[in-house]
Design a protein that fits this description.
single chain; binds adenosine-5'-triphosphate; globular; 6-stranded mixed sheet; nucleotide-binding; 2 domains; Rossmann fold
Length: 255
């Protein structure tokens, strides 16, 4: 899977570009985090890749095919749980497979395997309202993984969680990425999270959003929480924070 954005720009109102001149290639199996100040267009970028909105200029290509709408090869998880409250945990995870007409037995097996993978095998028949925020996000990730997406798109998936749960989820999502054959693209405003999870971090500038920096995270691929205290991690985190701050200040100075 190769995702390519070629000269992509996005305007919601004429003459007011939110994103401009985005040229970007993401290869199979990458874990890419996108950071930037509030309003820099991070979620818009993810929506373009998801096919929820179309670029004003340029093209988004997945393996050479233009993205013109959502598709099962791209799984999406938002910040707040978008689970169907009336469906059990298992039936939430099964939703995409049902839509694709996957036979019952195969569907049930896949759902059971995914629920085990996210540590919620015993919660299959429970309604989402009975779960904690972290558990709900695990179900949302399992649901997004159900159709074996080639790209998993995460939009601030842990933004609403407390610090402890968030760290558990960070470890969890790295495991998912290691175990599933999927590329991950994750938007976050949390620089520490981006450096901890990503193999690559994109920093967006503001107004319009462009790629200000495309950085390789040169840290061991085994990411344990202690890494967050290592000098290499702290230096990289500071560098990204400085960049985000500089882009934000430059934007403030222009308005
Ligand atoms: N559907 C829309 N219609 C009009 N304007 C929009 C729409 N979606 C986003 N925008 C505008 O585009 C800009 C970028 O928004 P976006 O949500 O992509 O930024 P972001 O970097 O994800 O912000 P945050 O970190 O605050 O979530 C904002 O000015 C926002 O108001």
């Amino acid at each position: 899977m190769t995702l390519r954005l070629s000269s992509v720009g996005k305007e919601f109102a004429p003459g007011r570009p939110v994103l401009a001149d985005l040229d970007l290639t993401i290869g199979a199996g990458e874990f890419v985090c996108v950071v930037g100040a509030s309003g820099s267009g991070k979620s818009t970028l993810l929506s373009l890749i998801a096919g929820l909105t179309r670029p004003t200029t340029g093209r988004v290509l997945l393996d050479g095919h233009e993205v013109t709408g959502p598709g099962p090869e791209r799984g999406l998880v938002f910040q707040t749980s978008s689970l169907y409250p009336w469906r059990s945990v298992a039936r939430n995870v099964a939703f995409g497979l049902e839509s694709l007409g996957v036979p019952r037995r195969e569907r049930d097996e896949r759902v059971a395997r995914l629920l085990d993978e996210v540590g919620l095998g015993s919660m299959a028949s429970v309604l989402p309202g009975k779960l904690s925020g972290g558990q709900q996000q695990r179900v949302a990730i399992a649901r997004a993984l159900a159709c074996s997406p080639r790209v998993l798109l995460l939009d601030e998936p842990f933004g609403a969680l407390d610090v402890q749960t968030k760290e558990d989820m960070q470890i969890f999502v790295r495991q998912v990425w290691r175990d599933e054959p999927t590329t991950v693209i994750m938007v976050t405003h949390d620089v520490e999270e981006a450096v901890f999870l990503g193999g690559r971090v994109l920093v967006l500038s503001c107004d319009p959003g462009r790629i200000a920096r495309d950085m390789v995270v040169d840290l061991p691929s085994e990411r344990a929480l202690e890494l967050k205290r290592s000098p290499g991690f702290l230096a990289l985190r500071a560098e990204v924070e400085d960049l985000v701050r500089a882009e934000h200040r430059a934007h403030q100075a222009r308005v």
